[in-house]
Amino acid sequence: MRITNNNIKLIALLLLCLFFSQAYAQGGGILMGIQGGQTNLNNLTMLVATGSNGNDTMFPVEDQHACDSGNNPPGCVSTTPSNTGFGVRLYGGAGFNDYVAAEVGLMYLTPSEYKPNVPFLTHEPQIREYAFDILGRFTLPIQDFGIFVKGGLAVVYKSESGALETNGDEQSGGNVFVRPEVGAGISYSFGYLTVDVSTNRILKGGGIQEVSFNALGLTYQITDKYCGQFLC
Fold first, then answer.
1. Could you tell me whether strands 193-202 and 173-190 are parallel, antiparallel, or unpaired per DSSP bridges?
2. pTM value?
């Protein structure tokens, strides 16, 4: 069979596609991913308003006398929360090349639970936080491995039970805070799929404590029209 210029071009294109399908993160393209791991809201010890008459009464923080030590009932118990649990982040974005990408994500965080040592308290107060983030990512590829850092902003929605006494620092109910977010990790690419291990932090300030998220992630990337879309 005679090898023509068209045959050479076709072979070269196939070899190029094969190379890029095995290269780290396939360069530019659309990103879709999920992360799961341990979260920690790092919330502080607070006063939990309780009743002392044996009833299932929850005294809201709006009651000015809910945490007066001289009242009986009600009374207050100083309680340290459980802050850790399992969290999930779903995200999408775009990779511009092997080095730079952008992500937009939604994060579920296990709430902080306050469990005062009160036998008749049937509803345990919680602080819940959810986050929406926009991040830039810079990756240093080393063959199929990568070392990356992230940075951007997180919009955090925070709500707390009315039985928590905030001493006027925050309002009971829902509040929105915009905070810086940073992260770093390592990854390994299996063609179109990339696995990573990372640590992420939403920084303290404005009304929230530092939020940590240590996670295992899986990213699928659709590459460009020449060497992507399942053709190469």
1. antiparallel
2. 0.74
